[in-house]
């Protein structure tokens, strides 16, 4: 086997090839881990649907800049109705009741 390896011309491996292979394998492992956890008994289907609805719609929870906190670490959430009272009802966030819709109109 050693003779064969010495006799064959092997392609040169540079750092970009190794890093590219690593990133490809890393993505495969991350995808496998994600799908394994997604379809495990640890995650309820209702939670998946709730997350999808949260991401795909303009639900009752939002941010002023529409990022919903994705990609931002250490987020401080401040519930305040200032400037948003015509669109959101924050008073019902912690009561367990559904929002009543538009609370009032702001006149500029």
Structural class of the secondary structure composition? Answer: mainly alpha
| Proportion of residues in extended strands | under 5%
Mean pLDDT: 71
Give unreliable regions as ranges.
none
The largest β sheet comes out as: none
Portion in helices: 25-40%
Question: Can you characterise this structure?
Answer:
This protein has 108 residues and is mainly α. It contains three helices and no strands. It has helices at residues 2-7, 15-38, 45-56. The longest helix is centred in the first third of the chain and has 24 residues, at 15-38. The model has no long low-confidence stretch (mean pLDDT 71).
Summarize the structure.
With 108 residues, the protein is mainly α. It contains 3 helices and no strands. The longest helix is centred in the first third of the chain and has 24 residues, at 15-38.
Question: Which properties best describe this structure?
Answer:
mainly alpha, 39% helix, 108 residues
Task: Give the SSE layout.
Blueprint: H1 2-7, H2 15-38, H3 45-56
